[in-house]
């Protein structure tokens, strides 16, 4: 099985330089703000997004200050979005620790997320790149749009298309931006930037489907509670597939109740059992494989380099990861 350290191998020095810069922005003289920033810094996660930016930059050139600033700004947007997401989803845990709103309060979580967005913009400004500014603003819009789409009961339908629209916006656009920003930072032409953007999008889709599969696995080590998606009103790909297989009005009614936040524990358990019985998890893995294959094909056409192999490894890790 592919390990994250294997993927990191190709960009160890660059990742250290990223971390120095990232940690330097996560401190402040104000006591409360500094305390929250330290909490955030202490659980930096797998750093999948900066890793992608560094790898994509290194396939086409040398990682430079522009690359690092791009990676820092996008990681800050990501961190802010998770703090806000835990408020929206009322989730108590993140990466094995209390979420910021649980450790402090909703007010502190919203405001510290806003503070991170402010530093993200500052880091974009330091590159002097209007193109990066455009990319980061558009990506932030997509993140919020995806979350709103997921919330909006009127627009919700129980389809593959609706699910894909949500995950493209809330997750894949950010991976896409990270890959594209890496290429932009080393002067890739527009066509190459577009290919990197697609690679990132396909990886992001795989990443979110895998995240949704984790929710069915009580033994998972991902550092957040499992079995939560349906409680939060989310009917994800494995369950959507099961619903389509049985085409039952009763189960469709249960799914609607889940989306409206009105399902009982028993309803949720019925839907979970149906999903497992109907092969929803296996189906979700098959969709991951389709998107991973598309990412590998695009990467194959990139110039030969040691880091290109790491990019393939990165895709494998996203598909196989247990954390
Ligand atoms: C996790 O999804 C959440 C996201 C991928 C995006 C969250 C985005 C926002 C709250 C919009 C805020 C926008 C900005 C620019 C700050 P999940 O809830 O399915 O996964 P989880 O299990 O990790 O919580
Ligand atoms: Mg969430």
Number of helices: 15
Distinct compounds present: farnesyl diphosphate, magnesium ion
Overall geometric form: globular
Largest sheet: 2 strands, antiparallel
The domain tally reads: 1
Structural class: mainly alpha
What is the H/E string?
HHHHHEEHHHHHHHHHH
- Strands of the biggest beta sheet: in what spatial order? 1-2
Q: Provide the residue-averaged pLDDT.
A: 94
Strand content range: under 5%
Cα-to-Cα separation, first versus last residue:
13 Å
The helix content is: over 70%
CATH class: Mainly Alpha
Produce the secondary structure layout:
Blueprint: H1 4-8, H2 12-25, H3 31-42, H4 48-60, H5 65-88, E1 93-94, E2 97-98, H6 100-103, H7 106-127, H8 130-151, H9 160-185, H10 190-214, H11 237-246, H12 249-259, H13 265-277, H14 280-300, H15 306-320
Antiparallel strand pairs: 1-2
Quick structural gist:
It contains 15 helices and 2 strands.
Characterize the structure shown:
The protein is mainly α. The protein has one domain (4-320): Farnesyl Diphosphate Synthase (Orthogonal Bundle), CATH 1.10.600.10. It has helices at residues 4-8, 12-25, 31-42, 48-60, 65-88, 100-103, 106-127, 130-151, 160-185, 190-214, 237-246, 249-259, 265-277, 280-300, 306-320, and strands spanning 93-94, 97-98. It has a two-stranded antiparallel sheet with strand order 1-2. Helix 4 packs antiparallel against helix 15, helix 5 runs parallel beside helix 8 (130-151) and helix 10 (190-214) runs parallel beside helix 15 (306-320). The chain is globular, with a radius of gyration of 20 Å. It starts with a helix and ends with a helix. The model has no long low-confidence stretch (mean pLDDT 94). It binds farnesyl diphosphate and magnesium ion. The site of magnesium ion has 3 residues, from loops. Magnesium ion (MG) is lined by residues 85, 89, 91.
């Amino acid at each position: 099985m592919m390990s994250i350290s294997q993927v990191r191998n190709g960009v160890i020095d660059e990742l250290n330089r990223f971390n120095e810069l990232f940690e330097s922005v996560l401190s402040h003289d104000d006591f409360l703000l500094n305390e929250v920033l330290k909490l955030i810094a202490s659980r930096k996660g797998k750093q999948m997004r900066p890793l992608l930016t560094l790898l994509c930059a290194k396939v086409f050139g040398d990682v430079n200050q522009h690359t690092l600033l791009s990676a820092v700004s996008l990681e800050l947007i990501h961190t802010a979005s998770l703090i806000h997401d835990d408020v929206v989803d009322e989730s108590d845990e993140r990466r094995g620790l209390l979420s910021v709103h649980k450790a402090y309060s909703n007010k502190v979580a919203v405001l510290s997320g806003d503070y991170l967005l402010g530093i993200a913009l500052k880091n974009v400004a330091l590159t002097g790149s209007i193109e990066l500014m455009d990319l980061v603003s558009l990506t932030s819009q997509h993140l919020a749009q995806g979350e709103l789409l997921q919330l909006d009961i009127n627009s919700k339908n129980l389809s593959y298309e609706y699910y894909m629209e949500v995950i493209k916006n809330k997750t894949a656009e950010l991976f896409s931006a990270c890959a594209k920003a890496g290429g932009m930072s080393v002067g890739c032409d527009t066509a190459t930037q577009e290919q990197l953007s697609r690679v990132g999008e396909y990886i992001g889709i795989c990443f979110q489907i895998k995240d949704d599969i984790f929710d069915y696995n009580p033994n998972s080590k991902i550092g957040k509670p499992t079995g939560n998606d349906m409680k939060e009103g989310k009917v994800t790909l494995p369950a959507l597939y099961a619903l389509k297989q049985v085409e039952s009005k009763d189960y469709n009614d249960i799914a609607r109740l889940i989306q409206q936040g009105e399902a009982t524990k028993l309803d949720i358990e019925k839907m979970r059992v149906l999903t497992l019985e109907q092969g929803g998890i296996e189906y979700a893995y098959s969709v991951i494989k389709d998107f991973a294959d598309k990412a590998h094909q695009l990467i194959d056409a990139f110039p030969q380099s040691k880091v290109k192999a790491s990019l393939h490894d990165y895709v494998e890790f996203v598909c196989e990861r247990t954390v």
